[in-house]
Amino acid sequence: MFAEVILNNNAKALNKIFDYIVPDEQIEKAHIGARVFVPFGRSKTLEDGFIIGLKETSEFANKEIGKILDEDYINEKNIKLAKLMSRKYFCNISECIKLMLAPGTGSKELNNRVTDKTGNFVYLARDNEEIQDLIEEGKIKTDKHIRVLKFLMENDGIYAVELEALADVSHSVLKTLEKNGYIEIIPNVIRRNPFINKDIKRDEPKKLNDEQQICFDGIVKDIDENKFSCNLIYGVTGSGKTEIYLRLIDRVLERRKNAIVLVPEISLTPQMVDRFLARFGECIAVLHSKLSVGERYDEWQKILEGKAKIVIGARSAIFAPVKDLGIIIIDEEHDMSYKSDMTPRYNAKDLAKYIAKENNCPLVLGSATPDIVTFYNSEMGQINRYTLRNRANESTLPEVKLVDLRQELARGNRNMLSEELKLEMEENFKNKKQTILFLNRRGFSTFVMCRDCGYTAKCSRCNISLTYHKFENKLRCHYCGYEMPFIKTCPSCASNKIKYFGAGTQKLEDEVKLLFPDKSVIRMDIDTVTKKNSHEEILNKFKNENIDILIGTQMVVKGHHFPNVTLVGVIVADSSLNIDDYRAVERTFQTLVQVSGRAGREKDKGRVLIQTYNPDNYAIEFSKNQDYDLFYNAEIDLRKMLKYPPFCDIILIRFVRKRYKWN
Ligand code: ADP
Ligand code: ZN
Ligand code: ZN
Predict the structure, then answer these.
(1) Is 110 exposed, middle or buried (0-12, 13-18, 19+ CB in 10 A)?
(2) C-alpha R_g of the chain
(3) In this structure, how many other beta carbons lie within 10 angstroms of the beta carbon of residue 502?
């Protein structure tokens, strides 16, 4: 017998199937998905890999498999999925297989697993890419150092003892790397283990309202009939989507099946997990990147052994080894984090659809602002759509006002806060309520805008904002390459107040402190959120210590529930309108609706002030009444006219070459 083997190696040249002879005495053990060690090239040590096929003849095989491991590592279905992904996403099969293995098993030291999980925690102190460069340039030479760093690049955040065992190094190696500034060793980090010290109050299912009931009945039918279907629950925040998820999962468990729930990484908070705990108790596994490799391994085992019936996790939880899958739920389905921005660049939403089909179970997508493509597919009848128009508890949607920053400038106010926002904040302080100031920093300093009329330089061919390249003093379209010199006067109104945009949360904080010296302020952005000082802790502090003002970027937008926040100020809505992406307008609309959703989530009515230079832009105009339908109609027409998805597919092709060496 012959085996088709894939090597566990990321090199592109090795993304091939190699044939090996299966020695007679190992035929019993040879099956698809088994992990093997094989001789390869001139290397003296055996390489590890996986059997992905078996056959009776082979033209090429001339070497024997060295060893076949006993344990089952990956099932045949997953091998099929990995092959498919490798074709669809242009990556190595082995890279896809790694996503489906128990965390930590990708490394060579398989049997040295550590169960004692106390003490120091290790993180990379630099970006993956920086470390990669340092290794490639030969600046980090020692094998042991490279092993540790490579391991951390794949599994950031791990207990020191685990790392020492998995990478087979001593503690002194870690100390050296820390001294050189490549890693951080942090003692006693408080983990987000959902089950420790939790006194879980059970809650009872709620009686569904009519809209919820229609949705529930529609999807539950497919659960009962073991039928694949793709469903969209389109409902404003607070309309009771999560309650429907819980009820559907309840039915899935009754039928002795299991569930996967995907949520955006950043909204995977303890509060969110608590709701599942309260309803279902401890049959839950949580998977996300802030857990150590060992903790993720434990969660993985709980799933494999069938102790966990519901898996809640970020994007990669779609690969959890769940048997008898009865439903897949993707909350906030429009969120960008479902698409991986690292190799393999998979889209968890597409894979979820494939996996649901394979398992004959429904897929449920939920959002208040669905992805334009998802909504289009629901219009075309490819996705069943259920609409929830009303909030499920007695709270109402906030009142949203637009502030025209051009007029503010005309009045001579050059501050980041308009007069109107200032007054609203004072009023809010008087009522002892909390305020969130939101500054969308994506896209800042990269585009050019006229402060008088709001004009932004765009590519006439692609309708995408031109990106400012400071070094060459040029504006360039990132889609088609069109470029033009930097403009000093506005082509639309001839003003010379045209410049690239630059304002940050730090500047905003300074301004706010100056204006309101006796108010407490807390800031949350990439600078203040570190691995030690998590985004969770900042938000808890804001909530528990009743801090007056929270200043933040995207991170404040998702999933949190602050009962005492009744005012949200958006500093400049325009910044994200101008990122160089055809989805810029869609993202802006989604973000504005979501930020608005942070205000007045309980009985007190919320107010939202959106400051903008483009009050007439349709994303901003329609976000005022949170009117997704109107927004969708405008956006889909434009997409059709400009031939953007869903009316085409866009493929990004990147050319890379090795650094040229002069001899
Ligand atoms: P979403 O997921 O759409 O944001 P949730 O499911 O979180 O909405 O519901 C918002 C609030 O309304 C929650 O506090 C929830 O407990 C409550 N709720 C949901 N459905 C009902 C219902 N049928 N009856 C009473 N309260 C409900
Ligand atoms: Zn262009
Ligand atoms: Zn102008």
Answers:
(1) middle
(2) 27
(3) 9
In angstroms, what CA-CA distances link 340 with 99, 260, 285, 336, 558?
12, 18, 22, 9, 19
Pocket test for ligand 1, best of 242, 261, 335 (most atoms within 8 A of CB): 242
pLDDT averaged over the chain?
A: 85
CB 553 within 8 A of CB 504: no
- Whole-number Å distance between alpha carbons of 360 and 225: 9
Q: Say if strands 483-485 and 498-500 run parallel, antiparallel, or are unpaired.
A: unpaired
Write the pLDDT tens digit of every residue in 65-91. Answer: 988 887 767 888 899 999 999 999 988
- Please write the tens of the pLDDT for every residue from 567-624: 999 998 887 787 778 998 999 999 899 888 777 666 778 899 999 988 999 999 999 8
Q: Taking the CA of residue 315 as centre, how many other CA atoms within 13 Å lie in the half-sphere pointing to its CB?
A: 20
C-alpha 574 – ligand 3 centre gap (Å): 15
Percent helix, strand, coil in the chain, to 5, is 35, 20, 45
The pairs formed by 404-413 with CB atoms below 8 angstroms and a separation of 24 or more are 404/612, 404/613, 404/615, 405/572, 405/611, 405/612, 405/613, 406/451, 406/452, 406/453, 406/454, 406/613, 408/611, 409/451, 409/452, 409/497, 410/452
Q: Give the pair of three-digit tokens for residue 331.
A: 């909350």
Cβ atoms 445, 468 nearer than 8 A: yes
Largest Cα separation within the chain, whole Å, is 87
Number of the ligand closest to the Cα of 205: 1
Q: What ligand 1 atom has the least distance to the C-alpha of 209?
A: 23
Sequence-distant (≥ 6) Cβ neighbours of residue 290 within 8 angstroms: 157, 191, 192, 534
How far apart CA 503 and CA 498 sit, in angstroms, is 15
Beta carbons within 10 angstroms of residue 87's beta carbon = 9
Task: Please report, in angstroms and rounded to a whole number, the separation of the first and last CA atoms in the chain.
Answer: 50
Which residue's C-alpha comes closest to atom 10 of ligand 1?
238
